TrEMBL record:
Chain positions recorded as substrate binding sites: 154
Family annotation (Pfam families): Hydrolase_3 (PF08282)
Gene Ontology MF annotations: magnesium ion binding; phosphoglycolate phosphatase activity
Needed cofactors: Mg(2+)
Reactions catalysed according to its record: 2-phosphoglycolate + H2O = glycolate + phosphate
Family of the protein in this entry: Belongs to the archaeal SPP-like hydrolase family.
Spans through the membrane: none
The entry's keywords: Carbohydrate metabolism, Hydrolase, Magnesium, Metal-binding
Listed name of the protein: Phosphoglycolate phosphatase
Catalytic center residues: 9
EC numbers on record: 3.1.3.18
Residues at which Mg(2+) binds: 9, 11, 177, 181
Length: 231
């Protein structure tokens, strides 16, 4: 049986969106996959330290892509920074000075990105930055808005791990719920959108589940079971 790598989003995928409470059966199923010999790697808009800690306590593969692709944590004192905080801060200042109700979200410390509350029109901010010739990535995870450096997203962040661990796209199964997961879907042969994803996100996935978040993860693993026995 082939070793697979699961690239798994956190919020809205294995947690109740917004609250952060883990769906324990889904986490248990992911731990079981890891024990069977597969990789289970969190790829999240949270800090990479949060993703890494979840892997330690949850019993999955100890490496995480966080900050929406901007930062990879491979050990407690080993972080690979792919994004550049300064350009994100500059874009943040411009957005804040020109659009109302723009505020930073209270999150664990970031090394490469700015995270905002979902309290304004993101398309308006995109238009504003375009007019000012500032090219950053603006995205919505349904949990927060993110400002990332140009070219930084979950797909480019995860690609670094694929290179590092010599993982082929053919063996990657991505699971997610929001627009920030689409770049990850694009670098994975199999991509799974959960029932709580928008129609746009679903249209970018190779498989669509009907159940939401953690229940949808269990539904997906059930469907994939025939190709996932012990390695
Ligand atoms: O945007 C966030 O901070 C978290 O979102 P994600 O885990 O669904 O990527
Ligand atoms: Mg999510």
């Amino acid at each position: 049986m082939k070793k697979r790598t699961f690239a798994v989003d956190i919020d809205g995928t294995i947690t109740e969106n917004g609250g952060g409470r883990i769906h324990l059966e889904a986490l248990e199923a992911l731990r079981r996959l890891t024990t069977m010999g597969h990789n289970v790697i969190f790829v999240t808009g949270r800090s990479s330290v949060e993703g890494y800690l979840l892997s330690v306590f949850g019993g999955t593969t100890k490496i995480a892509v966080g900050e929406n692709g901007g930062c990879i944590t491979i050990d407690s004192d080993e972080h690979i920074l792919l994004g550049n905080m300064d350009e994100c801060k500059k874009a943040f200042e411009i957005i804040q000075n020109n659009i109302e109700h723009v505020q930073e979200k209270h999150v664990f410390p970031r090394m490469t990105e700015v995270v905002l509350e979902r309290t304004f029109d993101l398309d308006l901010a995109r238009k504003l930055l375009k007019e000012k010739n500032i090219s950053v990535e603006l995205s919505d995870s349904q949990y927060a808005y993110h400002i990332n450096s140009p070219g930084i997203d979950k797909g480019t962040g995860f690609t670094k791990i694929m290179e590092k661990l010599s993982i082929s796209a053919d063996d990657v199964i991505a699971i997610g719920d929001s627009a920030t997961d689409i770049p990850l879907f694009r670098v994975s042969k199999t991509s799974i959108a959960l029932g709580n994803a928008s129609d746009h996100v679903k249209s970018e996935a190779t498989m669509v589940m009907s159940a939401h978040a953690g229940d949808g993860v269990l539904e997906a693993l059930d469907k994939l079971a025939p190709i996932l026995s012990e390695i």
